Amino acid sequence: MRLRNGLAVFLILACGVPLSSCYTYHVYQIGGPEGRELGNQPATEWQARTLHAFVWGAVRQDLPVDNCRLANGQRTGIDEVKVDTNLAYLLASTVTLGLWVPLKVSWRCAKPPVPTGVIR
What we know:
alpha+beta; elongated; 5 strands
C-alpha cells in the first residue's frame, strides 16, 4: 500500500512540476495591475505563444504582435507582457547546453487613448 501511495505522489509530481512555472517576468504600465481602476485596463484578453531560440540566441523566433489594432487599422500598443518558463523548458535548455531555449510569451493590448479637448 505504501509503495502505491509513493508511486502516486511521484507520478503527480512528475506530471505537475514540468508544467508549473519556474519564473515569470511581468511588464506593465504604471497604474496596473492593482491600479487598473485608474484607467490602466487592457483592451484584450491574454494572447500567448511559445518562442524558441537556437544556438545561444543566434537564431531566434521573434514575435510580431498584430492584434493590437482598432478596426480602422490604428495601433493601440501593448499594455502588459509576461515571459514565463517552466521546469520542462528549463530542462530542455539545460540538457541542450543552451542550444535550444523555449519561453512562453503572453501579452494584452492597451485601450486606445481617450480623446481630449473642447467639444464644440
